[in-house]
User: Fold this.
Amino acid sequence: MISIDPYIATPDQPINLQDWSTDNTGTFVNKSEIKEIRKQNIKLLRGLQDKLYALDRYSLLLVFQAMDAGGKDSTIEHVMSGVNPQGCQVFSSKKPSAKELDHDFL
Assistant:
């Protein structure tokens, strides 16, 4: 399994996007390797979604941010291809409403 540790942010760790190359592919070398790992991760993600749903206590927030034509749609398609869409909610991040501004996590 590939380590995702370099991509995990913690509350005490400042993030500067300029430190990250836009063409960063991590340790992946060829597409066939990526496709196989993606299949394994889809199975894992499907099982984790079932557990989160069964617990009915926690949720997962995924934030995709990029300029128009920045690849968000295809990234979301790949990442979310293995999950049940009935267990997902999608929100567009336009100008926040007054209600959204009340939530500090936004």
Summary: The mean pLDDT is 82. The longest helix spans residues 31-55.
